[in-house]
Design goal:
This protein has three helices and no strands. It is mainly α. It has a domain of 59 residues.
Length: 85
């Protein structure tokens, strides 16, 4: 009898609810978008300086998106969707 109960309790279940995973996907998308916006701006010739590396998109926008994405991830983890009414 104990084995049967243990098997029933061992059924797979998710740690978070669907809403949490949606927020996690949004956060991961924001982080990925930030890293994509931060990439590039280099030069093929190491003797030539390319000032494009210091533009507004790479210095301000991309890190802000990454930090917002991490904030959304933290919110998704801490969000309690199983509140009792």
């Amino acid at each position: 009898m104990g084995e049967k109960k243990r098997k029933q309790n061992a059924k797979g279940h998710f740690i978070f609810e669907r809403k949490n995973y949606i927020y996690m996907a949004i956060g991961a998308g924001l982080i990925a978008l930030g890293f994509v916006l931060m990439s590039g701006g280099g030069s093929n010739d190491p003797l030539v300086f390319n000032p494009e590396i210091y533009n507004w998109r790479r210095i301000r926008l991309a890190p802000t998106l990454i930090l917002i994405g991490f904030g959304v991830e933290i919110y998704a983890i801490l969000l309690d969707t199983r509140k009792k009414k």
